[in-house]
Amino acid sequence: MECSRFVLVDEVPANAESWFLARCFDELLVLGVRGVVSFADPVPRRDACGNLVAVGHVGTIYQATNAVYMGLATPRTVKLLPNGVVLNERMAQKVRRQEQGHEYAERLLIRLGAPALRAGADPKVWLREALVAVGARNQRHHGVHRFCGRVPRVAAWPTTVAGRGARRRSTPSKPSCRSTT
């Protein structure tokens, strides 16, 4: 299973993240899930005015729950919107194909100044034009940190990962962060 977002509000007491994640793992175990892949994006995000909108992180919560650090994901170029949000490829694909959830991405772009998608218009063309209209820019990203977490009490956890060699079950060392320029 992939953990794409792990967010708790500021009012949550210190150390609650690891407690909450452990409770999630207990529930996942009941459902038969054996492991969770998580990603941590170390790149800070700023809006077009230079205001910090996301500090970036190195996966401290995953390290605290004994997840194994699996290195950086593939480097790529991301579409950065003027508000500091990345329009990821999955969101773009939803718009292009008008798949479930496309409305969120369309509303986001319209709020940033894109014209509304007209009835009968080609969504692929609209997306291209909308990204130009809002001033989206390409930013090179060196890759997010990947972590693989074992759901507790699962006996069949591999000690090796193909292409990675043997992995210890101890807490992984803190990954080094690369900055983008």
Structure description:
It is a single chain. This protein is α+β, with helices and mostly antiparallel strands and 181 residues long. It has helices spanning 16-30, 60-64, 89-97, 102-111, 123-134, and strands spanning 2-3, 35-40, 45-46, 52-54, 68-72, 76-80, 86-87, 137-141, 145-150, 160-161, 165-166. The strands form four sheets. The protein has a four-stranded mixed β-sheet, with no helix packed on it. Strands 7-6-8 form a three-stranded antiparallel β-sheet. Strands 3-4 form a two-stranded antiparallel sheet. Helix 3 packs across helix 4 (102-111) and helix 3 crosses helix 5. The longest helix is centred in the N-terminal third of the chain and has 15 residues, at 16-30. Residues 154-181 have low confidence and may be disordered.
